[in-house]
Amino acid sequence: MLYRVAHPKKRKVSHLHIYENGIELNHLNILNDEHLKELCPLMGVRIDLKKKINDHIEAQATTESVTTNESVLIDVEDEIICKGDLSINLSELFPLLPQFQDFDLKTLLETSPCGKSILQFYNTNGCLDTKRRNRLTDIIIRHLFTFIVNKRLTYDDYTILSGKIITLFPQETASTYFTRPIKKVDSHRGKSIAAKGKLIDRVRNLLFQSGERKRKSENNSETLEIETKKRIDSDCGMYHN
Q1: Structure letter (DSSP) for residue 58
Q2: Which residues pair with 74 in a beta bridge?
């Protein structure tokens, strides 16, 4: 059976890990629950995928003639297409996670009262200090806060944000702002390690302090955005010195 994976365009499917694990169609009938958990961290997606796989296996068992030259195309943009009975629409099975609206970090800083001093400090010193790193993190999270409350940032989102930072400030280190979690099996400590970094720490602290996620169902998004902006902007004064 010929298996071909069409290269996806730049589109986000952060909870489907088929490609980097080298999964092929002939592997489907031997995937166990642990394999599926690795491929699909989201439980609902994992259940749907397991059902699709079982349906495919049953269809294979009841098919009288299966050709060995059958070709399969998996295309993240459209669907899984098989000349047999398997046809999985990935846009339905693996819906794209919402992503924050893209922005230019330099423009954001240039238009922020707190941000201009970060650019000036870096241009003068060739690096950022702890104070400016914290200030930079605050500005980014404040800009995305309404999205964070309603949608949450994924690990891919944090990676994108840390990439924006080191692109604008090349002397900075991405791991300062975000490091992905490490699974127990991959950890030299023999235990799992949580995601960390200034970006994710600021999100956790701000959500905890404000209690916005708990209040989300009690307030409309417009009121939430106004109240949050007032609260965070009031903290910005301490950064002017």
Answers
A1: H
A2: 5, 80
89 and 151 belong to one structural domain: no
For residue 85 the two structure tokens come to 């009975």
Question: What percentage of residues in the chain have a pLDDT greater than 70?
Answer: 55
Of residues 76 and 91, which shows the higher confidence score?
91
Cα angle for residues 212, 214, 216 (degrees, 5° grid): 65
- Residue 200's pLDDT band (cuts 50, 70, 90): very high
Q: Is residue 99 assigned to a domain?
A: no
pTM assigned to the model: 0.54
Last residue of a domain, one of 93, 125, 140: 93
- Residues 109, 224, single domain; the answer is yes
Domain that holds residue 13: 2-93
The total of other beta-carbon atoms located within 10 Å of residue 189's CB is 8
Note whether residue 98 is domain-resident.
no
Q: Are 1 and 70 in contact (CB under 8 A)?
A: yes
Q: Which amino acid is at 123?
A: N
**Total structural domains in the chain?**
2
Residues 170 and 215 in one domain: yes
Classify residue 132 as exposed, middle or buried by CB count within 10 Å of its CB (0-12, 13-18, 19+).
buried
pLDDT digits (tens, 9 = 90+) for 181-198: 988 888 888 888 889 999
Predicted pLDDT of residue 65: 43
